[in-house]
Design brief:
The complex is a heterodimer of chains A (451) and B (409). Chain A is an alpha/beta fold and 451 residues long. Chain A has helices at residues 29-32, 45-67, 108-113, 211-221, 265-278, 342-348, 361-370, 428-431; strands at residues 23-25, 71-72, 75-76, 78-80, 92-101, 134-138, 143-147, 161-170, 173-180, 196-200, 231-237, 284-287, 320-322, 327-331, 334-339, 399-405, 409-415, 418-426, 433-438, 444-450. Chain B folds into three domains: 3-113, 50s Ribosomal Protein L17, Chain: A (Alpha-Beta Complex), CATH 3.90.1030.20; 165-280; 286-408, no CATH class. In chain B, strands 1-4-2-3 form a four-stranded antiparallel sheet. In chain B, a hairpin with a 6-residue loop joins strand 2 (54-63) and strand 3 (70-75). In chain B, helix 14 (303-312) packs across helix 15. Classes of the chains: A alpha/beta (451), B alpha+beta (409).
């Protein structure tokens, strides 16, 4: 059994300097996700139209490629432009947006008609009821009910643009035999980069220090005795502070003095202290998350600088960035897309819980196939009323990470136009895990801290 | 004294006498040594006092059947190292009195460690990896945000003082001067005219002093309220460094002196200004003011009411008539009164003109001049008569009101 070393004499130590990486954050997100002027007079419908408009040609491309010479029961399939053009007993394919009619899914129209505008989806774990749920395909013309065994093995959710191949067997019901997704958007051809990047999420500071957070800080600054100087940056992907108490807002008196904020000042100043202790040693990129003091609607805007009393002097340089969620990063030539996990957690509510054994990888994989990272906004996820849809991918990243997932999972996904490293970053508070991404090899590993 | 003895003494003091846990990080900060030395020192101490303290071990390595890059484990049980396939290092993380949980140990030490802000030397001394950018503004932030002021002061005075750079002080002055300005703006409000110039001299004084003085001290002086309460804290705290204490005391004394000067300036100015103004302006202006007041009263109240008053007092009528006349007229009247008083008592009036006019005037007239009396009375009695009039009004209000209503009926 090994034992610690005794003190002999004070030894001479050299200064360890951290490796650096050329980092550009916000280069793309600035156009996509930063909201400069906000107008809430817009309707949400244009987002869906825009999404369909952008993705329809790409789905059409994939469908033509796949089904050009397809025939069902000896009849050649035809393309129908609109959902309502589908004719009975004619093998055809059509493109539209999926809409899931689910028993437990909150329906804003119903709620509004009942004069209850406060739709809270946070408490619902799953929208699914297998017997009653219906899948529709809709476009500008109307909607049609989809049916078929293929849906049992396919991850779908509201807002996804797909092409379906099949036949109208019963009136108003289209039996699907195959599905195509949009053509994958281009990926930056070069991804040359060196250095490692640390990603963590779900720090969930409460205002009271515990051993895990202190060890994480010491590990990153190198004081634990393990050389972590090869970690060039730390990305904190959301949920950095914990909401102390559940909703205190009274319905009647929404803006009264009795309604305290759920955020505790201590937790935020603890986050500030934590970041402040790291900054002289390692640059930090901070994304907001579901439980952070940022707006709920996506894209979440950067946490306000006033929250970082101690660390804000670093905000002037690139060494401390408060970023949007989602966010595009660039490390040297490598392009990384990250979210704090609400998107995947929400899609997870659309799938039958048992079918995927809690793994979130198939959902993340699917969202790359869908070419949309937040398809369920604005239906079940709050979202700014955009005129265009910023969540539709126009570029495929080299690395796509999702914060606040139940466990660490990673996969190198090979797509038709390149490879994407998917990383599910676990909740640090529960798992004590920090993900280390090698920007050269795209390997992702974890450092586990336990006490 | 060797490092080992120093640390043993410190740990004895804290762990065995004070019953407080001690992490490697705090030891490294307290003794300004490398964290790996601090861990070794903790273990050496543990070997000496095995019965009294309980160690928390830090295990680094790779767990069995795990793909993790690294596993970091804090444990009180050395046997946990069997879980590791490869053990990269084993060190003592903390020593603590028995039956304390690891989280409790960490919690108790975090705030202590925060008292030692990182400096340029810290990278080498404590073994912190040097990042691409280092801004040394910690002291200000910790001071302004930290709830316990005394705790924060200590390290600043002990370690940071000499090394803290110009950035800090620059930042500091900016913050503090704004604060001071605000503080004194609120003070200025009641004082009417010449105050801004005084406040600017005050701020310029403080800013110049902040440039010359040491940051910790200047900060104190700026954030401190005028009553000087916290200033006494310095003496109590800084018992370690004698030279520094001397310097600080000198500076403190100087500052106290300056503050007193300032305060006295403010006090003097308040008094002086008022007196001056009274001396200068009073003879010309206040009378028109009373006149205007009176005019207002006339406008507000019923003419019959004032007429009844005027009937009862012929002198006040004179006053009223003079009041109705323009300010120029009142000036003339005053000159006349002066002449009259000169005529009546030449020896007395000569020195009353020089001093505050309003205060001494009444006495002068009471003492000296029988002739100016009625006029002087008109001036003062018009002022004084207001309150009796009001009293009379309040006393007779009911009846007059009733009569008013009665008339209407």
């Amino acid at each position: 059994m090994a034992i610690p070393n005794e003190f002999q004499q004070e030894s001479e130590h050299a200064v360890v300097t951290r490796c650096e990486i050329d980092s550009k954050s916000g280069f793309k997100s600035h156009d996509l996700y930063v909201l400069n002027e906000r107008s809430y007079s817009n309707q949400f419908a244009p987002m869906y139209f825009n999404r369909l408009q952008v993705l329809r040609p790409r789905v059409s491309h994939s469908a033509t490629k796949k089904w050009a010479n397809e025939s069902i029961n000896g009849t050649k399939v035809v393309k129908r432009d609109k959902v309502l053009d589908v004719k009975p007993s004619e093998p055809s394919w059509v493109i539209g947006t999926v809409y899931m009619e689910m028993k437990y899914k909150p329906n804003i129209l119903e709620e509004v008609s009942k004069n209850n505008v406060n739709v809270d989806v946070s408490g619902i774990e799953s929208y699914v009821d297998q017997d009653l749920d219906e899948i529709y395909l809709e476009d500008e013309s109307g909607r049609i009910l989809l049916d078929g065994d293929i849906f049992k093995s396919t991850v779908l959710c509201t807002g996804v643009v797909v092409g379906v191949l099949g036949m109208e067997t019963k009136p108003g019901c289209f039996t699907v035999v195959d599905i195509v997704y949009p053509l994958m958007s281009a990926q930056k051809p070069t991804r040359a980069s060196q250095g490692k990047v640390a990603i963590c999420s779900g720090l969930q500071f409460t205002g009271i220090w515990d051993a895990k957070h202190a060890l994480l800080q010491d590990y990153l600054t190198g004081e634990l005795g393990h050389d972590s100087s090869q970690l060039t940056r730390l990305i904190i992907a959301g949920n950095s502070v914990r909401v102390q108490e559940q909703d205190q807002v009274q319905q009647r008196n929404k803006y009264g003095a009795k309604n305290k904020s759920n955020f505790s000042q201590q937790s935020i100043s603890q986050l500030d202290s934590f970041i402040h202790a790291l900054l002289p040693s390692i640059p930090v990129d901070l994304m907001p998350g579901e439980s952070d003091p940022a707006e709920i609607s996506l894209p979440q805007q950067p946490l306000h600088r006033a929250l970082f009393h101690k660390s804000q002097s670093y905000l002037k340089s690139n060494n401390f960035n408060t970023l949007t969620n989602p966010q595009w990063f660039q490390f040297n030539e490598l392009r990384v897309l990250g979210t704090s996990g609400e998107n995947v957690n929400d899609v997870y509510k659309y799938v039958v819980p048992d079918s995927l054994q809690v793994s979130r990888l198939p959902i993340v994989e699917a969202s790359l196939h869908w070419q949309n990272i937040v398809p369920t906004a604005p239906d079940t996820l709050a979202c700014y009323p955009f005129e265009r849809d910023p969540f539709t991918m126009t570029e495929t990243p080299h690395v796509y990470f999702i914060g606040n997932q139940p466990r660490f999972e990673t996969k190198l996904l090979s797509l038709e136009r390149g490879q994407v490293r998917i990383i599910c970053v676990p909740d640090f508070n529960k798992s004590g895990q920090l993900v280390v991404l090698d920007t050269d090899t795209l390997d992702a590993n974890v450092v586990t801290i336990s006490s | 004294m060797g490092l080992l003895d120093k640390s043993t003494e410190l740990l004895k003091e804290s762990l065995i006498k004070g019953n407080k846990p001690f992490t490697y990080k705090l030891l490294s900060r307290e003794l300004n040594i490398h964290t790996s030395d601090a861990k070794a020192l903790l273990y050496s101490f543990y070997l000496k006092f095995k019965d009294e303290v309980e160690p928390t071990y830090l295990l680094l390595g790779q767990l069995q059947d795990s793909d993790d890059l690294l596993s970091i484990k804090l444990t009180k049980n050395l046997g946990d190292q069997d879980e590791f396939e490869k053990l990269a290092s084993i060190e003592v993380y903390a020593l603590a009195p028995k039956n304390l949980t690891i989280d409790e140990i960490v919690q108790s030490n975090v705030s202590e460690v925060e008292r030692f802000p990182l400096t340029q030397d810290g990278f080498k001394q404590w073994g912190v990896i040097r990042g691409p950018e280092f801004i040394e503004v910690e002291t200000i932030h910790t001071e302004t945000t930290h709830p316990i002021r005394q705790e924060v002061r200590k390290p600043i005075n002990k370690t940071k003082e000499e090394t803290s750079n110009s950035k800090a002080s620059k930042f500091d002055t900016g913050l503090a001067s704004a604060r001071i300005l605000e503080k004194y703006k609120t003070k200025e409000k009641p004082i009417k005219k010449d105050q801004p110039s005084i406040s600017t001299t005050f701020t310029s004084k403080t800013t110049s002093s902040s440039n010359t003085m040491k940051p910790g001290v200047t900060r104190r002086s700026k954030t401190e309220p005028v009553n000087g309460g916290p200033a006494e804290l310095i003496e109590d705290e800084d018992l370690n460094d004698e030279e520094f204490i001397k310097k600080q005391e000198l500076e403190k004394q100087e500052k106290d002196r300056k503050r007193k000067e300032l305060e006295s300036m403010f006090d003097d100015d308040d008094g002086f200004e008022v007196y001056e103004r009274k001396g200068e302006v009073q003879p010309d202006k206040p009378q028109p003011v009373t006149a205007s007041k009176h005019a207002d009263l006339e406008g507000i109240f019923d003419s019959s009411f004032s007429a009844s008053q005027s009937q009862s007092q012929s002198q006040s009528q004179q006053g009223n008539s003079s009041v109705k006349s323009s300010p120029a007229k009142t000036n003339e009247r005053k000159e006349v009164s002066k002449e009259v008083s000169k005529e009546a008592s030449d020896s007395v009036t000569s020195y009353y003109d020089e001093d505050g006019y309003l205060v001494t005037k009444v006495e002068a007239k009471q003492k000296s001049a029988p002739n100016p009396k009625p006029r002087a009375r008109t001036a003062t009695s018009s002022l004084e008569s207001k309150s009796p009039a009001k009293k009379a009004k309040s006393g007779t209000k009911q009846s007059t009101l009733m009569s008013f209503f009665g008339k209407k009926k």
